[in-house]
Amino acid sequence: MTAATDTRKPETVDAALTVEDLVVEFNVGKGQTVHAVSGISFTVAPGETLGVVGESGCGKSTAGRAIMQLPSPTSGSIRLGETEMTALGAEELRRSRTQLQMIFQDPISSLNPRRKVKALITEGPSIWGGKDKAAIEARAREVLAEVGLDPDMVWDRTPRELSGGQCQRVCIARALMLDPKVLICDEPVSSLDVSVQAQILNLLEDAKKRHGLSLLFIAHNMAVVKNISDRVMIMYLGRVCEIVPAEDMQNRALHPYTQLLLSSIPDPDATVTAAQNVEQKVIELPSPLNPPSGCRFRTRCPLATDLCAEEVPELRLVQGGHQVACHNV
Known about the structure:
- Keywords: ATP-binding, Nucleotide-binding, Transport.
- The chain is an alpha/beta fold.
- The protein has a domain at 252-329.
- The chain is 30% helix and 22% strand.
- The strands form two sheets. An eight-stranded mixed sheet has the order 6-7-8-3-9-10-12-11, with helices on both faces. A four-stranded antiparallel sheet has the order 2-1-4-5.
C-alpha cells in the first residue's frame, strides 16, 4: 500500500544545523570522479540527535567532514543557526567553527601523541582569548570529571598511556571545552569494546542534556543508532534513502534499503514486518566512480521499475517527521 504523500520540505526554522543539496566529489585522475555525496539535505533541531547510518562507503563520514569544512564541499549550503558556513572567509570560519565540534572515529590517532592531556584539553580555550590560565585549568578539570576521568590521574599523561575508552573521553572533553552548539560524532564507539561503547553512549546522552547540544551521530551499527537517536537518516551510495523517527524505524520503515538493513538485526521483541521478507538482487555492488542512473539502489532493489532508472526519487514527507526517497512506496 502506498503511503500518503506530502511534498512539503521539512521545517528548517530555528534549526541548529541545516544542510541543503550537499555535494562532495573527488577527482581521482584519468577523468574519473568519486561521487561521495550527491545532493543530500537534512536539518538537526536544537537538542536533537540525528543518527546517520549506512554501509561503509555510503558517504556518511564524508558528509560529516564536509559540514566541518574538512575539506569544503563541492557545492551546497551548510547553515549553523543563521550562519552560512560555506560563505565564510578563513578567519570567520575558524571563529564560527568553535560552535561546531567533531569527535573522530579513532580516538587515539585523533589526539597528538606528544602532548599531555592537560595541553590537549586547554588548547582550545587558550587559543580563543582565554587569559585566565587558572580558570581554564579549573574548567578543564571539571569537564574531565564530567566525562568520567579522574583529572589528577590523567592530567600529565599522554594518549599512549591511556586506553581507547579513556582517549575517547578526552576527545569528548576537548570538544565540550568550547561549548559547541552542534557535536558531530563520527563513529565514536566503533573501535571500542562493547562494554565501553555503552559507557560512551551514556556519556554523550548526559552531555547532550547538560549542555543543550545537538548531535549528528554517524555509525554503521543500526542498533546503536536507533537507541541513541531521535531521528535516523539512512544513506546509500551518497544519497539519502529515508529519514525516520527512531521509535518508528523498526516497524514503519518504508524504503527497501532501510528494510534490508533492519532485517539483518536480530530482535526477538520486534513484530514480524515486511522487512524480514525483503530480498535483494544479488549482483556486483555499484561503485561511487560510476553510480547507477536514477535511484542508486535500483540495481539491488526488489521493487525496481523502469522509472527508477530514469528519475532520481526526491526525498518527500510521508507523515510527521518521516521522509522517504522511493518511487514505489
